[in-house]
Amino acid sequence: MAHPEFIQFSYGGKTYNIPRPEEFKPKIEDVYAAEITTCIGKTIADKIGWKFADLSLEWGGLPQDQLAVLANMPQQATMTFKAEDGKTYTEDIIRTSVAGAEHRWTDNGVVWWLSVALEVKFINVHN
Predict the structure, then answer these.
(1) Which residues contact 50 (CB under 8 A, 6 or more apart)?
(2) E-assigned strand segments in the chain
(3) Which of 3, 16, 42, 71 has the fewest CB atoms in 10 Å of its CB?
(4) Cut 0.90: pTM above it
(5) How far apart are alpha carbons 120 and 104 in whole angstroms?
(6) Are 2 and 81 in contact (CB under 8 A)?
(7) Which residues face 58 on adjacent strands?
(8) What would the pLDDT profile of 25-50 be if each residue is shown by its tens digit?
(9) How far is it between the farthest Cα atoms of the chain?
């Protein structure tokens, strides 16, 4: 189960805990199918479920080993987190990019990278 202060990323048979970004608030969006346009131009569709909206996770800084977890993540992985409703979700994701990490500094022998961002798309649709 995910600790509320961390997000778990799983890939390659391993699980990694990364600190939860301060602004991490995944939004929910409806998923529709069978979209049609009527003869008067109105678009209608059947709601089939919901999913978490694509998002960008942003950290002010991460140590080198945690940045490596994000940078080495394959395009598909699993993300486990506690949402604002208090429930823990394990979602299949597609990593679309890892950005930032242009500046670094060393603190007590630990290399830190500034302004790290990870963009993900959620795959799972829920009823």
Answers:
(1) 28, 29, 30, 31, 125, 126
(2) 6-11, 14-19, 28-37, 43-52, 55-63, 76-82, 88-100, 104-107, 110-122
(3) 42
(4) no
(5) 24
(6) yes
(7) 117
(8) 999 999 998 888 999 999 899 999 99
(9) 68
